[in-house]
Amino acid sequence: DAGVIQSPRHEVTEMGQEVTLRCKPISGHDYLFWYRQTMMRGLELLIYFNNNVPIDDSGMPEDRFSAKMPNASFSTLKIQPSEPRDSAVYFCASTRGGRDNEQFFGPGTRLTVL
Amino acid sequence: AQSVTQPDIHITVSEGASLELRCNYSYGATPYLFWYVQSPGQGLQLLLKYFSGDTLVQGIKGFEAEFKRSQSSFNLRKPSVHWSDAAEYFCAVGLSNFGNEKLTFGTGTRLTIIP
Q1: B44/A56 Cβ within 8 A
Q2: What pLDDT score was predicted for residue B100?
């Protein structure tokens, strides 16, 4: 299994631009999570999906952030417009759910907003 | 609301020495607890997890953790560290009936190994 795939691995953009981060979960996993990691705030859960439906988006910082999961094998996290304070590493994770199943993390996307 | 505290931001140990990383949680119900490791530039990897039963849990890479309800702790231990254990370690508590959704992570402990 290829694991959770994220693209791009690195993204540098200018303030005000739209940024789209992509995630392909592990096949068969029905939960998908988006996290953000910064030095100041650590690892924060932004949103998670179950069977492609958003379950909890209470961690999404503001309306500039949106996430979609059009099918079981693809999700996007979009920031529009981007700001320097959005600079962080964004992780996607997936799991089959159920108490015996762990979350598998992707390698992350390092976003730098200038 | 649940929370996780990792009181040690950075720990340095000598190769071959024993290790204990501290984790304290706050959660009203029976917690589901996890330890993850993050190597530089990588995602998080699960080391071990506790849901119920035996309070001493064995994980990968020779790590173990002990759940102590009376102390609200879930400390990670390893009897003899290797240079490859240098990484950042995160404790997390699961919030849900299933125990695997909506993890709340601690702020992490960075482990440095000296020869």
Answers
A1: no
A2: 56
